[in-house]
Amino acid sequence: MKFPPPFYRWRPHPWHGLDAGKDPPRVVHAYIEITPFDVIKYEVDKTTGYMRVDRPQRSSSQPPALYGFIPRTYCDSRVAALSLKSERGDGDPLDICVISERPINRAEVILNARVVGGFDVDDNGEADDKIIAVLENDMVYGAAQDINDIPPVIIERLSHYFSTYKLVPGEAAKLTIQRTYDAAHAMQVVEAALKDYYEEYGQ
């Protein structure tokens, strides 16, 4: 039996088997691992492509937006070179937070997201950038083109979440947000992560 392309006879690996989106680095695919309703840190298993329970969240923090990654991206030397502080990439796909007016309570979904900005995150010497995007065609946020188009309180909540979600009481913070950047720089980070992926894994 012949099927038209693109047809996946088996479930594709979310990181390697999906494409980066219809118009990267501006409009990208986001594969969602965690929703704002989750108090468990879920993460795609890099070997199997299935969702794995990474850890229960230690604190009461919940992610204020959808959280996942951009397929076929990889944080290595090019991503680190765009950081203010980090010495190397974290070796993971590039993280993305997607803002949506309507609540989406399911993970393991793919959506189109327009890149509007991001955070330069250093995690113990490793670049762990968080791209900020809006759900394409969202009735409230869909017209946003840059991070300044997003209400500041939403960016503040995202910043607070990432600044605190790994904190251990009595220990110094290992993760710091070095700066918040705009859409132009965010697209450079996405491009760098796409090139890092190509160098590491090929097409």
Any overview of this molecule?
The protein is α+β, with helices and mostly antiparallel strands. It has a single domain (29-201), classed as Inorganic pyrophosphatase (Inorganic Pyrophosphatase, Alpha-Beta Complex). The chain has three helices and ten strands, in the order ββββαβββββαβα. The chain has helices at 77-81, 152-164, 183-201, and strands at residues 27-34, 40-44, 51-56, 66-69, 88-89, 95-99, 110-123, 126-127, 130-135, 175-182. The strands form two sheets. The protein has a five-stranded mixed barrel with strand order 1-4-6-9-7. The longest helix is centred in the C-terminal third of the chain and has 19 residues, at 183-201. The chain is globular. The model has no long low-confidence stretch (mean pLDDT 93).
Mean pLDDT: 93
Order of helices and strands: EEEEHEEEEEHEH
Under CATH, the topology can be stated as Inorganic Pyrophosphatase
Largest sheet: 5 strands, mixed, barrel
Chain-wise SSE layout:
Layout: E1 27-34, E2 40-44, E3 51-56, E4 66-69, H1 77-81, E5 88-89, E6 95-99, E7 110-123, E8 126-127, E9 130-135, H2 152-164, E10 175-182, H3 183-201
Parallel strand pairs: 5-8, 6-9
Antiparallel strand pairs: 1-4, 1-7, 2-3, 4-6, 7-8, 7-9, 7-10
What key attributes describe this structure?
single chain; 203 residues; alpha+beta; Inorganic Pyrophosphatase; 3 helices; 10 strands
